[in-house]
Amino acid sequence: MNATTTRGALLAALACVLVGGSFTANSLLGDYPYAGGQFLRYGLALLLLLPLAGPGATARLRALGAGRWVRLALLAAVGMVGFNLAVLAAERTAEPAVPGVFVGCAPVVVAVVVPLLAGRRPQRVVLYGALFVAVGAFTVQGWGRTDGAGIAFSVCALAGEVGFAVLAVPVLRPLGPRLLSAVVCGVAAAESAVVGVLADGTGWLPRPDAVEAGALLWQAVVVTVVGFVCWYMGMQRIGAERATLFSGLIPVAAACTAPLVGTGSYGAAQAVGSALVFAGVAVGSGAVRPPARGRRAGAGRQEAFERSLEKL
Known about the structure:
This protein is mainly alpha-helical.
């Protein structure tokens, strides 16, 4: 791995560790209206991200066509608001491990879907790494009680996780990580407000107590501002396929932080699953390097992929 890909891998890893910690923060928001919490989280993140958008942000936004604005709206609706809604809906009739297992399959789906959309074959080393990550995520979380609705909403959560990466690919280059993060947070805040009014009426935005305020601040400042920017910076450097491998660190981070608030434990299964995730990330991201000829072929396919994205 060169300096660029190493930096990209570290950024993606940091982002996913922060997101994993957010699941622990979610456990402190069980009584707060979902849409109101999402509005506060993304609205505050927008205010913090706007000064970081960089010069020429207005011009870059004006240059976006209607199709890319639709993509941004879908990214916020599917990968942010919809993803969190699906997880909460799944957990009404399923144990939390069930949507977690489905979300852990996102690296496999992205490793197949992204190359096919670009008109190329999936890279075998990335696919193998993604399978390791998925098995490791399952081992960390295990399986739990569920029903048909729980599985259906868990599939929706998987679609949201995949959409968060795939839908961002064509708009990442023209906007850049910071402006893209700001825009999708603004769109997600507006969508959350609409959902809140429709679902909860006038009670959609109550005043949070001290614990809820702390959890929301953590999600807005650390998980969203820092996490989103790091995620898209990492994806910009190593591509969506390899970046999504690091989503396997989300259940690992969640398992490590859960004992801190008394919502879980870290035992032998979590240790074995963590090792499988680390192995999958190492193989798929290129930290364990393939032969030189394979690396040149992979680099050529990556360059062709990036050229095809510019045409979208």
